[in-house]
Structures are given as C-alpha cells and as structure tokens.
Amino acid sequence: MKTKTFTERVRAIVAKIPKGESMTYKEVATKAGNPRAARAVGAIMRSNYNRDIPCHRVVKSDLPAPRPDTYYVYAILCRNMAIYIGQTQDLQQRWQQHRDGTAADYTRQNGAWKIIHYEMYGSREEAVLREKHLKTGFGRKWLKREWKAGRTRQAGGSLGSYNRGGTLRKQELLKAEGAL
Q1: In what order do the strands lie in the sheet with 83-88?
Q2: Which of these, 75, 51, 42, 46, lies nearest to 144 by C-alpha position?
Q3: 138-169 per-position pLDDT tens digit
Q4: Is 90 exceeded by the pLDDT of residue 98?
Q5: Going from the N-terminus, what domains does the chain have, and what CATH number goes with each?
Q6: Strands (E), the chain
Q7: What is the DSSP letter of 55?
C-alpha cells in the first residue's frame, strides 16, 4: 500500500471539515502528522483549486506562543453570543481545549467561536485579579464596549487569504455556512 504524501493527507483532512466549522493551519498540520508545518498547509491551500476541498474553512490562529512567567486573561465569544472569560499560561493550548470542548462546560455546551480579547500578565495573581474584574458587570461592560469599538486584541481565527476571491469571498462563504 502506498503511503500518502503530506499534501494528500492535508487535502483529505480539509475535505472532511464540515460546513459551519473551521480549523487553523496548525490544527490541520498536526492532524496531518507535522505540527510544525502550518506554513506548508497554507501553501497547499493556496495552490488548491479543487472545489471538493473547502480551503476557505482553514483559518489563521494568530495566538502568541507560551512564554515563561507570562499569563493570559482571555475572552471567548461563544456561538450563543455570550462571552466566556478565563486565564491560562498557554493560550494556544487552552484555545484548542475550548474548541475541542474539553476546557470548560460552558464552552463545550455553547461552542467556542473566537477569542475576542486577550491580555498578558507577569504573574498568575495579576491574571486572576484581572479575570475576576472582567467577570463583574463593569468589567463585562468595558469588554463589550472595547470589542465593539475594535480596540481589543483579537485572535483565534482570523481569516487569512483565499485563492478564489480573496479574504472577503472567504468571509462570505463562512458566513453562508454559519461559521461566522
């Protein structure tokens, strides 16, 4: 039996992404057997013109890599339009857990859509204090106001380019499928 190439594995994975869902380039690369090949996945998607492979469902991650003594407070917009707030030391890993439904009951039940804000702190204590503040009525009001004004640090699923009509076309397709 012939072993599939990395390109064939990537295309097979992307072909199975259901309507209304998306994966990051890194998630696709990891599933294809090489977690460090996110850029290669992007190159494969750029050269894909097969309409059976929905390359518009592959998005950028845009999350910072974990660093020693750095803690993150984050806010996730759920599919029910509610905002989940948490803190972690590894934002990439925690985001993946939320997307997989293994991080918190709330995001498992209501779906983690995208990270609408994150902040970095030098200690867990600072991050916990900020998380507590954002969970208050005043904190949530501030967060919603800043997010709607476009002043928050957003990540976890920006669209990236699309080889059949640019980013706007990719956005239109994902909206039509219910992924945005």
Answers
A1: 83-88, 71-78, 112-121
A2: 75
A3: 999 999 998 888 788 765 455 555 666 666 66
A4: yes
A5: 6-61+158-176 (1.10.10.10), 71-148 (3.40.1440.10)
A6: 23-24, 58-59, 71-78, 83-88, 112-121
A7: G
